[in-house]
Amino acid sequence: MMSDLLFYGLVTTLVLLSLLAVSLPNLLHGAIALIGSFFATAALYIMLQLEFVALSQIMLYIGGIIIFMLIIILLTSGLGQENRYMVKGRRRAAGAGVSALLLIGLLLTISQPSETLQKATLRAAPVTMDDIGFRLMATNKNGFIIPFEIISILLLVALVGAVVIARRDNGQEQES
Amino acid sequence: MTLIHFVVLSLTLCAIGVYGVLTRRNLIGILLSVEVILNGANINFAAFAHFRASDPAAGAIFPIFVMAVSGCEMAVALAIIISMYRRKKRLDVYKLEELNG
Fold first, then answer.
1. What ipTM does this complex have?
2. Cβ pair B28:A27 closer than 8 A
3. For A1-86, which CATH class?
């Protein structure tokens, strides 16, 4: 099956790039690996016939959040050289152990899935962009208008708050 | 390509992100790992929306809210990190102990 091959290739790319993103010593390289993993995720969304989610993944995550992150890295640490904070091998092994335990536990939890979960290959009708737009703005009991408006206020508050926090205070509150 | 594949994939991404949160020493590195966890959660939502949903549009809308909240989080984190860097000149989480009890 062609699509299965594509799926496994994308999954391998995604997992490898995510591993690189969390383990590369240079944060700039990690953020670039994260860009690659988000592109692979967008490709997976397209395989799931969710084009709108794929587009907003590329626009919001890659065009917005990762750019934010690259700006933070470049502003703070001199081209992302964070090698001076060396992580000890023992701590690295402990982290790997804890996350492996978590993964094994979670996999055991779903290792006995119900029949419906296991056989879930039947597709719902693909969601069109029209559907998503109407549902976001619908005011009936299935609509998402209230979360939508709350998100817009939250974004405004977060941006104003970010400006207030990052503003250089005039030397009065520099205690340390 | 069934639902169970996607669930396993998102659990793997969650574990990778937890590993990053536990081992990174830099504040920005921890934020980056949290993005990996959120990515896994979004994949889960999308997969359930595609394979088994009586209401697939809701499953497609929720990742978008997650992305918006994640954008807010990054904006506030940018501000906090910049002001902290201005005071301390470092972002090592082992050295940031001001909020210790």
1. 0.88
2. yes
3. mainly alpha
